[in-house]
Amino acid sequence: MSDANVTATDSSTNEGEPSGSVGDNNKGSPLWKFVTVLVQPKKGEGGNCTFKCHFCNGTFHGSHYRVRLHLLKISGKGIRICRSIPDEKKREVEGLVEAYETGKKRGQPRLVPLPSSSIEGSSSGSTYGLDLMDEVVEVPKKRKGVSGPLEKAFNNNAREQLDCEIARMFYTGGLSFNLAKNPHYIRSYNRAASCPIPGYRPPGYNALRTTLLHKERMHIEKMLEPIKLSWQQKGVSVCSDGWSDSQRRPLINVMAACESGPMFLRAVNCEGDLKDRFFISDLLIDSILEIGPQHVVQVITDNASNCKAAGAIINARFPHIFWTPCVVHTLNLALKNICTPSSITSNKVAYDACNWISQVAEDVWFIKNFIMNHGMRLAMFNEHSHLKVLSIADTRFASIVVMLKRFRKIKQSLERMVISDQWEAYRDDDVTKARAVKDMILDDDAWAKIDYILAFTLPIYEMLRRLGVIRMSHVFTRFMSGGML
Predict the structure, then answer these.
(1) Total domains in the fold of the chain
(2) CA 7 to CA 64: how far, in whole Å?
(3) Is residue 315 located within the same domain as residue 349?
(4) What does the alpha-carbon distance between residue 412 and residue 403 come to, in Å, rounded to a whole number?
(5) DSSP secondary structure letter of residue 248
């Protein structure tokens, strides 16, 4: 089988095709041996390709499902049957298809009865050979003394079985339990219960990632039209910031903000690109042109030198658009210079005045690492505290202040831990470090310094907390509900 044939089958299912079509992963189907793929399927076309039959030399357009109809001479399905295939070859193809579908079915997960029910005729709970998509009628076990008017009225047995089916969906799919808190998850089942549709099947893999996704995007775009129209009267600011996703890919977000509310424009994957002033300015200029330069008042980025230079390039091209540094980033830099001042000559005044704060922060990090890196010490701490020791990345806004605030909350737990008999009895780690940690935790002067640091950094921290904690998921949720931030 050629690579082209394999590629042609690894695509989406056409809506309305039964099980066994391209979307069901028919890479190894023997039918592809008897056709030649002339045109590969395009993205978004549901796996439809152009193929040529080896027997009749006819050229057709469709998926694996249509190849099967053509070769097996199944008429009345919208494709001409192959009249040139010999009967002996047709029987061979039928045998190959039957063997392929049987092997594919055996490789599928076995259907396991639900906890609250048993499948008729199966005493072991294993139903080998049953497809999960097959219709299975489950016969509930009869329990004496349970069946009554109340149970019949509320249909408790059916409710229990449905709960078990939903729970198994979470377990086998590795879904987060937080999905159960999603209002759309709850409303989907409420709608299905209140408006039953006989024979309804939920949307499949391909519908979710193609037609329904496109439909949802168009709907969101329509809902955002009032905000876009307000840009003409009130003007708009283009905001940009960089971050990394769970796969450590560098991304740059671009948003439009105005009095009517913020709106997400795009996220660009910058992996492999040099994020200099020209790259950033080109990215922002594309967004400005999409909005309309006449509606844009300013661009807002962080205070990095490349972003500042990009703002100058934009201002040179659009003189009415000026660059504004991000307030959150500015405050974070100020707080960072207070908590961890640099020792360079130009920063000597701040270093001399605030260097003691960095020493306090280093002691706190030392205590945190000592507890977190020793399993027994961490177990001792967990016995005395219901709060956890935070592991905060240095890149987070106000990371030092956040750590100091948490240490202040767990002060009594730390003190109880180091004066306990367990702390003194455990000797398998560095005794010198353990004694140093105990002395630091019981030092009243150290706690007084932490209180002082938290007191005079409180205004900056509160401003950072109010401005820097809004997440994109929150923005999307508020837009979906028609609200504003």
Answers:
(1) 4
(2) 12
(3) no
(4) 16
(5) -
Is residue 26 within 8 A of residue 6, CB to CB? The reply is no
pLDDT class for 109, splitting at 50, 70, 90?
low
Q: Are residues 177 and 250 located together in one domain of the fold?
A: no
Please state, rounded to an integer, the average pLDDT across all residues of the chain.
Answer: 79
Q: How far apart are CA 228 and CA 390, in angstroms?
A: 41
Residue 330 forms part of a structural domain: no
Distance separating alpha carbons of residues 121 and 130, to the nearest angstrom: 13
Helix (H, G, I), strand (E, B) or coil at 322: strand
d(CA 165, CA 111): 12
The CATH number of whichever domain residue 279 belongs to comes to: 3.30.420.60
Answer yes or no: pTM beyond 0.70.
no
DSSP 127: B
- Token digits for 423? 């702390």
Phi, psi of 121 (to 5 degrees): 90, 0
User: For residue 286, what are the contacts with CB-CB under 8 A and spacing of at least 6?
Assistant: none
Strands (E), 363-427: none
- The answer on 310 and 393 residing in a single domain is no
Please state, in angstroms and rounded to a whole number, the distance separating the CA atoms of residues 460 and 398. Answer: 9
Question: In terms of DSSP bridges, do strands 296-301 and 236-244 run parallel, antiparallel, or are they unpaired?
Answer: parallel
Spatial separation of the C-alpha atoms in residues 61 and 41, rounded to whole Å: 10
Which residue bears the tokens 């353990």? 434
> Which amino acid is residue 331, in one-letter code?
L
- Say how far apart CA 54 and CA 51 lie, in whole Å: 10
Share of the chain above pLDDT 70, in %: 78
Radius of gyration of the chain (CA): 32
* Average pLDDT, integer, range 187-195: 89
Task: Give the Cα separation of 115 and 124 in Å (integer).
Answer: 13
> pLDDT per residue over 244-257, tens digit each?
877 888 899 999 99
**Considering 175, 205, 235, which residue would you say is the last residue of a domain?**
205
Q: Looking at per-residue confidence, does 475 or 252 come out higher?
A: 252
Q: Are 397 and 464 in contact (CB under 8 A)?
A: yes
Residue 81 lies in a domain: yes
Extract the tokens encoding 195: 């408006």
Residues 189 and 254 in one domain: no
Contact assessment for residue 268 and residue 290, using Cβ atoms and an 8 Å cutoff: no
To which residue do tokens 């168009």 refer?
Answer: 218
**Apex CA 70: angle with CA 68 and CA 71, to 5°?**
70
Report helix, strand and coil shares of the chain as percent, to nearest 5: 55, 10, 35
Question: What does the block give as tokens for 321?
Answer: 């658009």
Q: Which residues contact 416 (CB under 8 A, 6 or more apart)?
A: 384
Q: Decide if pLDDT at 478 tops 80.
A: no
> What kind and span of H or E run contains 118?
strand 118-119
Do 56 and 44 meet the contact criterion of CB atoms below 8 Å apart?
no
Q: How many residues in the chain?
A: 485
